[in-house]
Specification:
alpha+beta, Cytochrome p450, five-stranded mixed beta sheet, three-stranded antiparallel beta sheet, 53% helix, globular
């Protein structure tokens, strides 16, 4: 997408959806056969280069608007939940898996649950949880030390997902699951099957699994059953704590106990399904997105040694000489260059490259009338890498761009990248995600030398979309840092 396409959109907005350009559809199936689901984001980005930032698809006879213009996407996201919502099939698929939580909730239910979730992840709560986060990070350090000593190349995504599951369960549910030091049959091994199945089902033209269970569905049912066992174990443990210590209901120390204690003015509580759904939602949201962003950040930093060396110098100046892990919460909120590296990784390799929404009322988009129920695919990376807006180096990994322009420059980059979304439904876990990622990167920078972060073939990792976007086959080899 270039400046000329944006200017053309502004000067001559389309008069109707049917007037939009787009790829030629096939009979009956429309453009569906042209979409390779694991690479769907790349296909839509490529079509945006060809047809411009606003174009049309047809999927199974239904017209779809594809939008790759940052300001217009931001306008849609700010108009949630009243004007737009996630497409209904997403809520349907997630809810039937037991995920009836804040992610899929709308209207009053969303507002009620959102307040609880936001308060559980605010900086004050994170500060109180920080000593537990340090302990989980120390476990991760022991795992990395073993790999560094043996020369083992670790499966980066799998290990980081164990770390994020342990952190999320501790902060949100008050439970120490310790998947980092567990064996193969741990919660993370079951959780990582859920997002791929959600993505598969929301993109199928017919919900066959409600009528016929294929082997892939039966295998998934077994994984989902194990996850639900863990969810209800968390809930039972929280209820036991609240029975033993009734004062916890007045000032809940974690999200789960806040959900259990919540009452409306009329005394009504959240339903059991809503409580379990939020536990599952937070587990999923805290696992894939943070772990995959760390994977991409480490890959990009390994390729840019000057950036890595600058990050190491900043960490050395921040972490106390006698510490392997950062122990000071206030210092963790600093590390400005490290944070710039994370934002740059999220800009270039967003783990949520597509957002699917539908309109809740008749509206307009770039002057074009849209009827209630119109589906829009928001392509998130195009504006974030637009050379006309960000300069000729927009496609390059340059973390300093987040510092060079001061606060105004950072706001402009955030408006283009939107890694945590925008508007009222901005990701409630963004503070936790940033602190987790800072803890991991500072741990590695302080104590290890990056020997290799790449694939077995030596080729850059392919991007694959399974609800979240992840690198395929990324491994990491470390060596102990001299003197550490």
């Amino acid at each position: 997408m270039d400046r000329s396409s944006n200017e053309a959109l502004a000067k001559a907005p389309p008069r109707a959806l049917k007037d939009l350009p787009g790829p030629q559809p096939w009979p009956l199936l429309g453009n569906l056969p042209q979409l390779d689901l694991p690479r769907m984001h790349e296909k839509l980005e490529g079509w945006a280069e060809q047809y411009g930032p606003l174009y049309r698809l047809t999927l199974g006879g239904k017209p779809i608007v594809v939008l790759a213009d940052g300001p217009l996407i931001a306008g849609i996201l700010r108009d949630r939940p009243d004007g737009w919502r996630r497409i209904g099939v997403i809520a349907s698929v997630i809810n039937e898996m037991g995920g009836d939580g804040v992610f899929t909730a709308e209207g009053y239910d969303w507002r009620r649950q959102r307040r609880l979730v936001m308060s559980a992840f605010d900086p004050g709560h994170l500060a109180r949880f920080f000593p537990s986060l340090v302990r989980v990070t120390e476990r991760f350090d022991r795992r990395l030390a073993e790999a560094a000593k043996s020369g083992e190349a670790i499966d980066l995504q799998a290990q980081l997902m164990r770390y994020t599951v342990d952190v999320t369960a501790g902060l949100a549910f008050g439970s120490d699951v310790n998947t980092l030091e567990g064996g193969s049959d741990v919660l993370q091994e079951h959780l990582d099957k859920i997002f791929p199945m959600i993505y598969r089902r929301i993109n199928l033209p017919f919900p066959y699994w409600r009528h016929l269970r294929l082997p892939i569905d039966r295998a998934f049912d077994r994984h989902l059953a194990e996850v639900h066992k863990a969810v209800h174990r968390f809930i039972d443990e929280a209820r036991q704590r609240m029975t033993i210590e009734p004062e916890r209901a007045a000032k809940p120390p974690n999200l789960l106990e806040a959900l259990l204690a919540a009452r409306d003015a009329d005394g009504s509580a959240l339903s059991e399904a809503q409580i379990a759904g939020n536990v599952l939602t937070v587990l999923l949201g805290g696992e894939d997105t943070t772990a995959n962003t760390l994977c991409w950040a480490l890959f990009l930093l390994h390729r840019d040694r000057a950036a890595w060396d600058r990050l190491v110098a900043e960490v050395d100046a921040t972490v106390a000489d006698d510490q392997r892990v950062l122990h000071d919460f206030d210092r963790s909120r600093g590390l400005d260059y490290l944070e710039a590296c994370l934002h740059e990784a999220m800009r270039l390799r967003p783990v949520a490259p597509l957002i699917f929404v539908e309109s809740l009322r008749d509206t307009t988009l770039a002057g074009m009338p849209l009827k209630k129920g119109t589906i829009v695919f928001c392509v998130m990376r195009k504006s974030a890498t637009d050379a006309a807006t960000l300069g000729s180096d927009a496609a390059e990994f340059r973390p300093a761009r987040w510092l060079d322009g001061g606060s105004d420059g950072t706001r402009a980059l955030n408006r283009a990248a939107m890694p945590f979304g925008a508007g009222p439904r901005l990701c409630p876990g963004r503070y936790l995600a940033l602190v987790e990622m800072k803890m991991v990167l500072s741990l590695i920078a302080r104590n290890y030398t990056l020997f290799d972060v790449g694939t077995a073939s030596g080729e850059p990792p392919a991007e694959r979309l399974a609800f979240a976007m992840f690198p395929v086959g990324l491994r990491m080899k470390l060596a102990p840092r001299p003197g550490r």
